[in-house]
Write a structure and sequence with these properties.
Blueprint (H helix, E strand, L loop, with lengths): L3 E6 L3 H15 L4 E5 L2 H13 L3 E8 L7 H11 L4 E6 L4 H11 L3 E4 L4 H12 L1
Parallel strand pairs: 1-2, 1-3, 3-4, 4-5
Helix pairs in contact: 3-4
């Protein structure tokens, strides 16, 4: 079993299913692929992975979610876990939100919906490289 994970956070299950399917196709069983539908659920997953001694390497988070927006969530993650690579996925984030995530969350990349599998592969490979 892999001791490293990638977490995808989006309030649309279709997006989460697509991301997980593409990541599995791209990277096989090298990583665990976890999903969450909002920031609160993501924190539960993060805490569970931490308790189990599994390294969370990358978080791919939507920007527009109920409750906490992706840039704010990623900034919170960065304060607690600065080594996790943060990627924002968005169809609607404005330049200011992306810049704030770069500044406050050390954002690695921003993928725009709809993304291509090739773009996803490049971003994740550069995050893990």
């Amino acid at each position: 079993m892999s001791r490293s994970a990638i977490l995808c956070v989006d309030d649309e299950t279709l997006i989460l299913d697509s991301l997980k399917e593409q990541l599995l196709r791209l990277f096989g069983n090298r990583y665990l692929y976890e999903t969450a539908t909002d920031a609160a659920e993501a924190w539960e997953v993060i805490d569970e992975l931490s308790r189990e001694g599994i390294d969370l390497l990358v978080i791919v988070s939507d920007w527009l979610m109920p409750g906490v927006r992706g840039d704010e969530f990623l900034a919170q993650v960065h304060r607690r876990y600065p080594s996790i690579v943060k990627v924002m996925l968005t169809g609607q984030a404005d330049a200011e939100a992306i810049e704030r995530a770069r500044r406050e969350a050390n954002l690695h990349a921003c993928l725009h919906k709809p993304w291509s599998e090739r773009e996803l592969a490049q971003v994740i490979e550069s995050a893990l490289g």
